[in-house]
Design a protein that fits this description.
Length: 267
């Protein structure tokens, strides 16, 4: 007998959110009814605290979120970080220095909890982060109080190419990932992912993988979709995600998450 769904885990950009970073009235209603039925909706995203704060109210997001690709657990209501997994500074420095040598034009930033510390020529989505700390040389990035995530930005070398270059450097203790952007690669502690954070979150609440319905569209969602018992790739998902995940949801612009959730929960 198929167990009931006890938790909804959803990526945001390209999955729950439409292209303008909003959701429809229909999606808002379904998410509210899911919560009223006792099924939490947990956003799981690469976004930073500032990034998710900007969309949370309009998207009807409340409670707990897993952000920064699994590095942070975040209280959306209090706007506070609940827990963090960080990169050791020595590891982050070694990786950044190796990448700078291999990709000379790359600029770097560090997500340090709520704030971002970045080099002056770092250009990726700088508008998302309020009050960034701008440094004049790479060495000063390590003055950040915490290195949750290292970010590499290049306007010359595409992200997929940066990933290939990074993989060839033989660096240990880190994982290279991206969220579908052509100019930014993310570096997180090895073993940390949306899947690892979701598994820990669910274990603490006695929720089994087969009781989780998960939705995603990009490569950084694959591990989460493989872990969840009810995985759904969006119709607009990356080809590799569509190839790996049997479940399908309509696209993000067609209320895909909400339509599947409504069916699963009988809403």
């Amino acid at each position: 007998m198929t167990p009931p769904v006890r938790l909804i885990a959803t990526d945001l950009d390209g999955t729950l959110l439409r292209g303008d970073h909003t959701v429809s009235a229909y999606t808002l209603d379904v998410l509210e009814r899911a919560r009223a039925a006792g099924v939490p909706v947990v956003p799981i995203t690469a976004r930073s605290p500032d990034g998710i704060d900007r969309v949370a109210e309009g998207a009807g997001l409340r409670g707990t979120a897993i952000i920064a690709n699994g590095c942070l657990v975040y209280d959306l209501d209090a706007r506070e970080i609940v827990s963090a997994v960080s990169l050791p500074v020595a590891v982050a420095r070694k990786v950044a220095e190796a990448l700078r040598e291999a990709i000379p034009e790359a600029a770097f930033a560090v997500l340090a909890g709520r704030r971002v510390h970045r080099e002056a020529h770092y250009r990726h989505a700088t508008h998302v982060h309020r009050d960034p700390v701008i440094v004049d040389e790479l060495a000063r990035l390590w003055e950040a109080p915490l290195v949750v995530r290292l970010q590499a930005n290049s306007e010359v070398t595409p992200t997929e190419e940066m990933m290939v270059i990074a993989a060839g450097l033989g660096l240990s203790g880190v994982k290279f990932t991206h969220s579908g952007d052509d100019t930014m690669m993310e570096i997180v502690p090895d073993g940390v992912s949306k899947a690892s954070a979701l598994a820990e979150f669910c274990a603490g609440r006695g929720i089994a993988p087969e009781e989780v319905a998960a939705f995603g569209d990009n490569l950084n969602d694959l591990e989460m979709l493989a872990w969840a018992g009810r995985p759904y790739a969006m119709a607009n998902a990356h080809p590799a995600v569509l190839a790996a995940v049997p479940g399908r949801a309509p696209s993000n612009v067609d209320d895909g998450v909400a339509r599947v959730v409504a069916g699963l929960l009988g809403l």
